[in-house]
Design goal:
Blueprint: H1 7-29, H2 37-40, E1 83-84, H3 88-94, E2 97-100, E3 102-103, E4 107-117, E5 122-126, E6 131-136, E7 143-144, E8 149-154, H4 156-188, H5 193-219, E9 228-232, E10 237-242, E11 249-250, E12 255-260, E13 265-271, E14 284-289, E15 292-304, E16 311-318, E17 329-336, E18 343-346, E19 351-353, E20 356-363, E21 366-371, E22 373-378, E23 381-386, E24 393-397, H6 399-414
Antiparallel strand pairs: 1-21, 2-24, 3-18, 4-13, 4-17, 5-12, 6-8, 6-11, 7-10, 8-9, 10-12, 13-16, 14-15, 14-17, 15-16, 18-23, 19-20, 20-21, 22-23
Helix pairs in contact: 4-5
């Protein structure tokens, strides 16, 4: 028979079991918590740094210089110091004009002129005979080549010229045959030599008359047997205007159309008489045109005494740029009585930056503010004593805009 258990002993045993079970559970729930220095090192990151290492005092991580930057991305390269970068559209919109450095440091004179076709590059094609316009083959703006037909005229006079040439040629042929026959008979002793000499003279006269008739027909447009004459252009170029219409009547000498070659245009200036002795062929001019500024070379200078008071006509050709259309107004700066080797720039091209005189020189990186030493001033030009070699292209118009842009960029870098 079992003895009853001691209640006190049973309670002690149950309490011990509960304590052991709770401790075991606590150990299992906290098995991931480090209990030693060795275990604590397990929670360090893969680089061997503990969590929070490198953080500031407030626990925030320091900002990364490349945070938010796409892989491989680089910041936009800044313009070199003293250089202003402008796109082609910005240059056009701002009116910044790039010109070559001028030559000469003497007194300057501004002269006016126009773009005109050179001698031999234009023609006023006129009708050679009086007649009726049968066809017009061109219109204003048409491109034509030399000897291309512009219009066809039917003329009774032209038919007469053609008939006379044909008749004179036939008479010359008959006279030549008579002379050949008499020459053969003289060798046989049948005809006197005097008759042969007479037939020879008649043959020469008939041939001369035939040549004159052919020349007259050619001068009147070489008409065909029906009297049709082709009015042709003597030069290649562009038709300026047409002054005849089909069915109309044109008189001999009346202009049918104007033709000019735009590739052979030149610059023609009217200058004061004093410049006739100061300007010579080969001198360089800085020309301002509606299309921009460019350099030109003087090809000829002549005094025009037909004008009241006298004038000087200066002709020039561009060195690089293409000319605007014929009739465009232009102007040029002539520097006389100066050293041909000295350099000059427009007064507006020289700007003051940080107390120094500079000009903005065109470079592959942009427009670089280049310090220069200025000399004498003549009209709207300034002599450059030092700082340029003469081969540069500089900003000659609205240079103050680049100065303002340069100052703006320096102000932004100052913050």
């Amino acid at each position: 028979m079992n003895k009853p258990r001691n209640p006190i002993l049973v309670g002690a045993l149950l309490l011990s079991a509960l304590v052991l079970t709770g401790g075991l559970t606590a150990c299992q729930g906290s098995s991931e918590a480090p209990t030693t220095e060795k275990d604590a090192s397990a929670n360090e990151d893969g680089h061997g740094h503990a969590e929070g290492e490198g953080e500031g005092e407030d626990g925030a991580k320091p900002a990364d210089d490349h945070a938010g930057e796409a892989p491989g991305a680089h910041a936009e390269e800044e313009a070199p110091e003293g250089v202003v970068q402008l796109t082609a559209d910005q240059i056009k919109a701002s009116g910044v004009g790039v010109i070559a450095v001028g030559r000469g440091g003497g007194a300057s004179t501004r002269i006016a002129g126009r773009v005109e076709p050179s001698i031999g590059a234009r023609a006023s094609v006129a009708a050679t005979v009086t007649g009726r316009v049968e066809r017009v083959l061109v219109a204003p703006g048409s491109q034509v080549k030399a000897n291309q037909t512009l219009a066809v005229v039917v003329s009774g006079d032209a038919a007469t010229f053609r008939a006379a040439a044909v008749s004179a040629g036939a008479e010359a042929e008959v006279a030549r045959l008579v002379y050949g026959r008499d020459k053969a008979l003289v060798e046989q002793g049948v005809v006197a030599r005097q008759e042969m000499e007479t037939s020879r003279a008649r043959s020469i006269a008939a041939e001369a008359a035939a040549a004159a008739a052919r020349a007259q027909a050619a001068a009147n447009g070489s008409p065909d047997s029906s009297g049709r004459v082709s009015i042709t252009s003597p030069v290649s170029g562009v038709v300026g205007n047409v002054q005849v219409t089909p069915g109309g009547v044109v008189s001999a000498g009346s202009v049918v159309a104007d033709v000019s070659n735009p590739d052979m245009n030149e610059l023609v200036f009217t200058a004061p008489p004093a410049l006739a002795s100061q300007v010579a062929a080969g001198m360089k001019l800085e020309v301002t045109a509606p299309t921009g500024a460019f350099q030109a070379e003087v090809t000829g200078v002549a005094a025009d005494i037909r004008q009241q008071g006298g004038t000087t006509v200066i002709r020039a050709k561009p060195l690089t740029a293409a000319l605007p259309p014929a009739g465009s107004p232009i102007s040029a700066l002539v520097v006389a009585d100066g050293d041909a080797d000295s350099l000059s720039v427009p007064a507006d091209a020289v700007q003051t930056v940080d107390g120094n005189s500079v000009v903005f020189v065109e470079t592959p990186e942009g427009f670089k503010a280049t310090p220069v030493m200025v000399g004498r001033r003549a009209g709207g030009s300034v002599e450059i004593v030092n700082g340029l070699n003469g081969t540069e292209r500089i900003v000659g118009t609205n240079a103050f805009l680049l100065k303002a842009e340069l100052a703006k960029g320096e102000a932004e870098h100052g913050h």
